[in-house]
Write a structure and sequence with these properties.
The chain folds into two domains: 166 residues, Cytochrome c-like domain (Cytochrome Bc1 Complex, Chain D, domain 2, Orthogonal Bundle); 223 residues, Cytochrome Bc1 Complex, Chain D, domain 2. It contains 13 helices and four strands. Helix 2 packs antiparallel against helix 5 and helix 11 packs across helix 12. It is 33% helix and 2% strand.
């Protein structure tokens, strides 16, 4: 009996050693991938913390405009106003009044971008599932539509941008210091003279550009009065219910739209299991061979520089529109400096899995296609002089498998699947949002 037990113990010990070795090897493989990636990031940035997005409630660590401090009350007000279709009182036609909002073109279902190449505010109908079903109202001429001749940028992670839009024309600080001569009177750029940063200026200018109105007398007699009172208790009532204060609240809210629950963010916080092995390999390529980090840096994986990559301008097909010379020239169209011609701002990279179009002109319809474009390093737009093309735009020598790994990292590891936490369940007015036209109400299930 003792012999049998001894043999059993020896056998169990042998199995234990085998299992232990396998576990050690598995753990070693994971730890090697983690340590290699961590070493790459530390070499580039000094610490993994340098890439962390703050929590939305950690207001003190969210980058903000000193002229527009963030508060919980201001963010709450902004979250309502951002989605409020009741502000759409300046529509071109009466039937479109109160049917659209800021969120019509920057909504959660498309990662706070549009489900189209071009978002449509006034003059749009319908929503679909992720905004892809929105289309122009046939009673509107193309020139009457509230639509821009360039792809709609995201509102996600804008706290890490000092100037806004593809050409960076909004904002009085950072890269725009010295561009004062371009803040043309009578145009949206004139708002830069107010001295705010880009997120705030875009919100201020956007209310007028997109035919949204904040009427002080109406606010006083609406459910919004108490929210303005809480957000701006130190401002005299006679100057409290204004367009500027509404826009600053919207900007404060937009600064809290942070994809801080993405797997990569959780990995940065210490959870080695947050990313798969393929995603870690993709991240190693991102911070290594693919050189993505050269332009996509910092917590939001963007920088505040402008590059010419020779991409096509907007060509439809959703809306036939003409791209004017200033828009085509990107940064140069704003600054008037020929050295800036055809250069566009680096976009952030979080939550692209729900995005259907890429590049400032939406000329790419998948993330893989734009990575392949950058891997080939051959400009597609013959209008752009080769002398303007960025030195970073050159063949990368990535294999098909490496491209797939990069796609996996960007699409999955940078995807925060809980952005709905930033969207109010309902508005103080009870209005439907992000759109309130009859077709949109059906699409989004709003009575």
């Amino acid at each position: 009996m003792k012999t049998v037990n001894l043999r059993k113990l020896v056998f169990l010990a042998f199995i234990s050693v085998i299992v232990s070795c396998q576990s050690d090897n598995d753990y070693q493989n994971v730890s090697v991938a983690d340590s290699q990636l961590e070493s790459q990031i530390i070499e580039l940035y000094g610490s993994k913390n340098a890439l962390l997005l703050p929590h939305a409630s950690d207001l003190s660590n969210i980058p903000y405009d000193p002229n527009n401090p963030i508060s919980e009350a201001k963010v709450l007000l902004g979250s309502f106003l951002y989605h409020e279709t009741g502000l759409a009182s300046q529509a071109m036609y009466e039937e479109s009044m109160y049917t659209y909002s800021c969120a019509s073109c920057h909504h959660v279902d498309a990662g706070f971008q549009s489900g189209l190449r071009q978002g449509i505010g006034d003059g749009g109908l319908g929503f679909g599932f992720i905004g892809e079903g929105r289309h122009s109202n046939p009673m509107y001429a193309t020139t009457q539509l509230d639509v821009q001749p360039i792809r709609t940028p995201t509102a996600l992670n804008v706290a890490f941008q000092s100037v806004m839009l593809w050409n960076g024309q909004f904002g009085a600080s950072g890269p725009n210091v010295g561009t004062e001569s371009q803040w043309t009177s009578g145009t949206p750029k004139e708002n830069n003279s107010l001295g705010f940063e880009g997120v705030e200026i875009q919100a201020i200018a956007g209310l007028d550009v997109h035919r949204l109105e904040v009427n002080g007398d109406e606010i006083i007699n609406s459910p919004y009065k108490s929210f303005f009172d809480n957000a701006y208790p130190n401002i005299e009532e006679s100057n409290r219910y204004t367009k500027i204060n509404a826009a600053l609240a919207i900007a404060a809210y937009e600064r809290t739209l942070l994809a801080n629950e993405a797997p990569f963010q959780n990995w940065l916080k210490g959870s080695s299991s947050a990313m798969t092995e393929d995603q870690k390999l993709g991240a190693q390529l991102f911070y290594g061979k693919a050189h993505c980090y050269q332009c996509h840096s910092g917590p939001a994986l963007n920088d505040m520089n402008f590059y010419a990559l020779g991409m096509h301008d907007l060509q439809g097909p959703e809306i036939s529109t003409t791209v004017d010379e200033a828009t085509r020239k990107g940064r140069g169209g704003f600054t008037g400096n020929s050295e800036d011609d055809y250069k566009f701002k680096t976009p952030q990279l979080y939550n692209l899995k729900d995005v259907q179009f890429f590049g400032h002109g939406g000329s790419f319809e998948s993330l893989k296609s734009i990575i392949e474009y950058k891997n080939d390093g051959v400009p597609e737009n013959s209008i752009v002089p080769l002398t303007q093309i960025s030195e970073h735009f050159k063949p990368l020598g990535l294999t098909e498998q490496e491209i797939e790994l990069l796609v996996e990292f960007i699409e999955e590891a940078l995807y925060d699947n809980n952005l709905q936490r930033f969207v109010p369940e309902e508005l103080p007015t009870g209005n439907c949002f992000p759109n309130a036209d009859p077709q949109s109400k059906i699409d989004v299930g709003c009575d």
